[in-house]
């Protein structure tokens, strides 16, 4: 394992590089300073067609993404860090690939597999021989591709300090990270997923209503998305929800009247019910 220092020299393998794997890799490549860090990536795809797609996508980064294959074992063999980015239900199939468990031995394994606990993954990868296991469970969000991920990292005391630091550093390249106890990871994942779903639906409704009122769609989308961005930024250490709401809700103002209309539609209880349902669904996966 390469030393975790200010300057890093690492090979990172991404197995099953689907949508989230591509989003993660794209974000890292945008963020990493090649003059400071020497990162090389090997990625595996499920099929030849997917491999061809990845080759086209990362053609301009061939010096960094220098191995694209359909063989998970080949991708993982020389890596320092192996990121599991395939679908959770494919775990058994992938691990049964010829030589893969041996290729994963002694490496830092980062799992993006939703619904699969660190303990379960450790047992599967190491076939019960867990004394030298190095597994970190991480759940980035779709914003990773533009370096705006809300990444959840399981706070695992079993990992060494250097492995924990490396995982945090790697995913901070694509956005913000939040340490979460394993027992809460599914709940917080559901909150993240529900937030994305609800914001997209709300924005779609805002844009459609704006268009119906005569606003060109590109203008409506630009204004709505920038307002969401600014509100999000203000809530990250600058203002509380209460102070933001109060500052916008001047007497006889547009905002307070819009909020009162929303309350008539029971939007608050609808949002709360949707989040509660998402949490219960995630816990039962």
UniProtKB/TrEMBL annotation:
Domain of life: Eukaryota
UniProt-listed InterPro entries: 6-PGluconate_DH-like_C_sf, NAD(P)-bd_dom_sf, P5C_Rdtase_cat_N, P5CR_dimer, Pyrroline-COOH_reductase
Coiled coil: none
GO BP terms, alphabetized: L-proline biosynthetic process
Protein name: Pyrroline-5-carboxylate reductase
Molecular function per GO: pyrroline-5-carboxylate reductase activity
Keywords: NADP
Binding-site positions, NADPH: 72
Family: Belongs to the pyrroline-5-carboxylate reductase family.
List of residues binding NADP(+): 15-20, 85-88
Domain Pyrroline-5-carboxylate reductase dimerisation: residue ranges: 182-285
Lineage of producing organism: Eukaryota, Fungi, Dikarya, Ascomycota, Pezizomycotina
Pfam families in alphabetical order: F420_oxidored, P5CR_dimer
Residue ranges annotated for the Pyrroline-5-carboxylate reductase catalytic N-terminal domain, each copy included: 11-115
